[in-house]
Amino acid sequence: MAKDKTTYVCTECGENHPRWLGQCSSCSAWNSITEFKESKVITQRTPSKNAHRGYSKEDAKIDKLSEVSDMDLTRFDTGSSEFNRVLGGGIVEGSVILVAGDPGAGKSTLLLKTCAHLSQIGKSLYTSGEESKGQVRDRGLRLQADISKIDIMNSGDVELICNVMVTDGYKFLVVDSIQTAFISSLPNSPGGVTQVKESAAMLNRLAKEHGVTVILVCHVSKSGDMAGPRVLEHIGDCMCKIEPEADSKYRTLRTSKNRFGDTTEIATFAMTAKGMQDVVNPSAIFLDKDGAESSGNMAYASNDTGRTLLINIQSLVTESQAENPIRGGVGFDYKRMQMLLAILRSRMGVNIGGNDIYVNVVSGVNLTKDVGSDLPLILAMISSSREHKFSVNTIAFGEIGLDGSVRPVPSGEERVKEAIRNDFKVIILPKRNYNKRLETKGVTLIPVSHVKDVLEIF
Questions:
Q1: C-alpha to C-alpha distances, 319 to 138, 193, 275, nearest whole angstrom
Q2: What phi and psi, each to the nearest 5 degrees, are found at residue 127?
Q3: What is the DSSP string of 377-432?
Q4: Residues in contact with 35: Cβ distance below 8 Å, sequence separation at least 6, in sequence order
Q5: DSSP element (H, E) containing 36
Q6: How many other CB atoms are there within 10 angstroms of residue 206's CB atom?
Q7: Helix or strand or coil: residue 358?
């Protein structure tokens, strides 16, 4: 009998190590490396011809790449316009979709409603290794979803699941979750690196060989990455992650990989008693136009994630009572704020660096990597220091260089259109983002090329 091979695998990121370490060199997690013994013995239930197989459909025939026939993508409506848009226009037949998220993020809630809608199109099977059939049924009734055509199975045996899918002619499969799936011929326990990898590979072959659409629920690690081996991310055609916003009522769905669409799209949902409801205009979540006008407030048209969101930026500049002025920021990069204060002093002659300065991005939105927020932040800080009140219908965006130039930002036209759609009447933007065709009746566009131009606004 062959000797068992010993490997050391990080349970957080799935990285292999030649020996045990206290800290994973890949994800920096402590005490996460576990010893695994992989048996080289092929059991009777594992045919030798399948011992070495790829992750997708096998086709040994050699063809000219230019002569390969076009693949017509068949897409199915998921029942959610937001989910459809993130997937590239609907879920593709024969694809494997990975949906990850923290516990309670809404993975099972979203996919149960999706499965209910897909069951009206073709036979659908929902397999749950974490909840009983009664729990899943009760959730479906609470969500008021039509679950009459959903078939459910409480099993994580992937070989059994694949056999049922092919034999009974199912078109859609939801596995909740891949961490509870297993192949009985493997000695490892469910959730282990080998089980997750081989289970996902078998389900991927099911999708490619039989045209079955597979949706896999995935856990996440402490660092927020998808739990399990990295190969899991390579197997999936589309990888989505559900993230809760600062207000736990809202959820954001993002894609980091999509073989059939764009990865810049994001979807916003509201978690309600009836499940995940589409938020068609997410700017309404982050934008407050109903409050009274006050100094230090400025609206910003963000497009860092590929979808334009209108956000409120607040600043408070007050006389310092300490030897060293205080700098406080929520949702903004502290070092970039220091740089903008230096630009204000050197390029505009506005010296407010001796004051305590606080910056807040409303609703907890993170703009630490969004350079387009430079212009609205400068406007907010000057507004606060001079007690100047901007109209609630004023919005701005633009990056500021060290020479004081106001640089253009990507998707400038989309930002302007979104601002106009939300009834903003004054839009301050970089001159190189300005275009005459953006002129709209009742809306004033103020293009600026240098920070000195900004002073003329006050």
A1: 58, 57, 48
A2: -110, 130
A3: HHHHHHHHHHTPPPPTTEEE--EE-TTSBEE--TTHHHHHHHHHHTT--EEEEEGG
A4: 6, 7, 8, 20
A5: strand 33-38
A6: 23
A7: strand
Which DSSP string corresponds to 227-243? SS-THHHHH-SEEEEEE
pTM of the model: 0.71
261 near 78, Cβ under 8 Å?
A: no
- Would you give the DSSP letter of residue 48? G
Instruction: Count the neighbouring beta carbons within 10 Å of the beta carbon of residue 29.
Output: 18
CA distances for 35 relative to 29, 222, 380, angstroms: 16, 20, 55
Phi then psi dihedrals of residue 21, to 5 deg: -130, 155
How far apart, in whole angstroms, are the C-alpha atoms of residue 359 and residue 297?
10
**Nearest-10 Cα torsion for 296, 299, 301, 305:** 70
**Token pair for residue 348?**
């505009």
DSSP classification of residue 282: T
Candidates 97, 144, 128; CA nearest to 253 is: 97
Q: Which residue has the tokens 């305590």?
A: 356
Domains parsed from the chain with CATH numbers: 5-38 (no CATH), 75-280 (3.40.50.300), 285-455 (3.30.230.10)
Q: Where are the beta strands (DSSP E) in 11-132?
A: 16-17, 33-38, 75-76, 91-92, 96-101, 124-128
DSSP single-letter state for residue 368 = T
pLDDT in tens, the chain (458 residues): 445 667 788 877 777 788 888 888 877 888 888 777 654 443 434 444 444 555 666 666 788 888 877 777 899 999 999 999 899 999 999 999 999 999 889 999 999 999 999 999 999 999 999 999 999 999 999 999 999 999 999 999 999 999 999 999 999 999 998 999 999 988 888 888 889 999 999 999 999 999 999 999 999 887 778 887 888 888 999 999 998 865 568 888 988 899 998 887 888 898 888 888 998 887 777 776 665 578 999 999 998 666 788 999 999 999 998 888 999 888 888 889 999 999 999 999 999 989 999 999 887 778 888 899 999 999 999 999 999 999 999 999 999 999 999 999 998 998 999 899 889 999 999 999 999 999 999 999 999 999 999 888 87
Please confirm whether the linkage preceding 155 is cis (ω < 30° from 0). Answer: no
Residue with the two structure tokens 């000797």: 3
* Tokens 């694949």 found at: 162
